[in-house]
Amino acid sequence: MIVQIGGHVIKTGMGPLLLHLMRRGVITHLAMNSAASIHDFELCAYGGTSEDVAAGLADGTFGMAEETGRDMNAAITAGHANGWGMGEALARYLDARKETPGREHCVLLGAWTLGVPVTVHAAIGTDIIHQHPHADGAALGETSFRDFKRLAASVPALHDGGLVLNLGSAVIMPEVFLKALTVARNIGAGKPTHFTAVDFDMHRHYRPRVNVVERPTLAGGTGYTITGHHELLIPLLVWGVDAALRAR
Which position among 11, 73, 144, 156 has the lowest Cβ density within 10 Å, counted as fewest Cβ atoms? Predict the structure, then answer.
């Protein structure tokens, strides 16, 4: 199962449930937008995340926290130099860091430790770490591009019975998934097909509906849109998966 997430999934505390599914071998690839990686990184490295956007925007301090921009950009720059993707680069940095108060709940670090591919898909200029003086466009672009290729390499496994979940990403992950899918089908003679695609979110949006649920399953498969709060839907999903596994 490929799971792709947006920032609010982490911000609302759903990370430990994703880790649970990874430990049970259910999630085979975890993909996220940059916002999710930032929230997860901050929770792991500093023990907290979030800020008052409106107040910070008024005086130009929004997103200007020194630690997040400095440390994440250092990790990404190191990843660029070492041939890693952005997800692996952030996980390796956190693993080597001495103080990580949120280590046991970190999905970046947990996925990497478990051997589950974890990829981060950035759009330049959308995230607070891009405002930092140490942000390197080449490093951001190359590490995220490596992760795109890694996701595209995971997509063929969806063929004939696989599952892709889009949890709370309204734009970035649906667009990335659509392109990864067409790469896989271009190389794989039209496969994968006959998989299930599901979008979970608080509101219904065009891109998840069309680019995850509808278009990818036209050649065979089933798509579902499930609307509700992450704090309700994701625990119910995990409960259902656990119940199904116990019944085997």
Answer: 156
**pLDDT tens-digit series, residues 15-31:** 999 999 999 999 999 99
* 172 — pLDDT class (breaks 50, 70, 90): very high
Cα radius of gyration rounded to whole Å, the chain: 17
Crossing angle for the helix pair 86-96 and 107-114, to the nearest 10 degrees: 100
For residue 221, list its beta bridge partners: 195
Cα dihedral value 25, 103, 118, 221, nearest 10: 50
* Domain residue spans of the chain: 2-246
- Alpha-carbon distance of 134 to 129, in angstroms, equals 9
Alpha-carbon distances, residue 158 vs 5, 146, 163, 234 (angstroms): 17, 20, 6, 21
